[in-house]
Design goal:
four-stranded antiparallel sheet, 10 strands, alpha+beta, 220 residues, globular
Length: 220
């Protein structure tokens, strides 16, 4: 195993996916973990329709010796079921949330950035216990499967209210499985009720979303 410490200054919303106006409806959500493997969820709010370009000098973390240089040259992205969900018999075909996410990815199979790991907020999720979570997609365009990745997430409105400020997030193989190259995996982060309005108000002009202090452990 090789462990790398990388810095990603900015994370963007998924460009092609944000053009879809499909409502994502799911079944139930595991809310016990801080970074939750996504079993399912109950109801979702409107999708944040934002696209933000990455500046290569600040945001691209190159690992290995990939010769990929343009997003159009990368293989089509694949949706990956988390290890915890897979162990419970959940598949893309039998779970509505995964099915919806899979259609989103099919609509924009070149999402993500070569030699980079990106995180994309997708929707608000209303859990059966009354809690609210944000559904994210983590996209691995690095040259090796990710066994574990840690980062501190900031998400909110510029110079205004923030949902997360340097929130520690870990996606570990024990819960999510190895995040394969050119694959996307969903995860949930719980938010407070007052954060719902902030999320719904995010636009391309006011969004502030960043990953800091990123540590990645890749498969050898």
């Amino acid at each position: 195993m090789k462990k790398l410490f990388i810095y990603i200054a900015v994370v963007s919303f998924i460009a092609g996916c944000s053009n879809l106006d499909e409502d994502m409806v799911t079944d139930e959500t595991n809310t016990e973990a801080e970074e939750e493997p996504v079993e399912s969820s109950t109801k979702t709010a409107k999708e944040v329709e934002v696209t933000e370009e990455l500046d290569d000098s600040e945001s691209k973390a190159t690992v290995g010796s990939s010769d990929k240089s343009q997003s159009s040259e990368v293989p089509d992205l694949k949706l990956q079921v988390t290890k915890v969900d897979e162990e419970q018999g959940i598949t893309i075909e039998n779970n509505e949330m995964y099915s919806q996410l899979n259609e989103v990815i099919k609509a924009d199979p070149k999402a993500g950035f070569p030699n980079d790991f990106s995180v994309y907020p997708r929707d608000l999720v209303y859990n059966e216990d009354g809690g609210i979570s944000i559904l994210f997609l983590g996209v691995n365009r690095l040259d090796a499967p990710i066994q574990s990745i840690y980062f501190q997430l900031t998400l909110g409105k510029q110079n205004d209210n923030y949902i997360f400020e340097n929130k520690p997030v870990t996606l570990h193989e024990e819960e999510f499985g190895k995040i394969e190259t050119d694959s996307a995996v969903p995860f949930l982060l719980d938010v407070n009720p007052e954060d719902e309005e902030i999320f719904m108000d995010l636009t391309e002009e006011n969004i502030d979303i960043r990953l800091d202090h990123t540590e990645v452990e890749l498969e050898d």
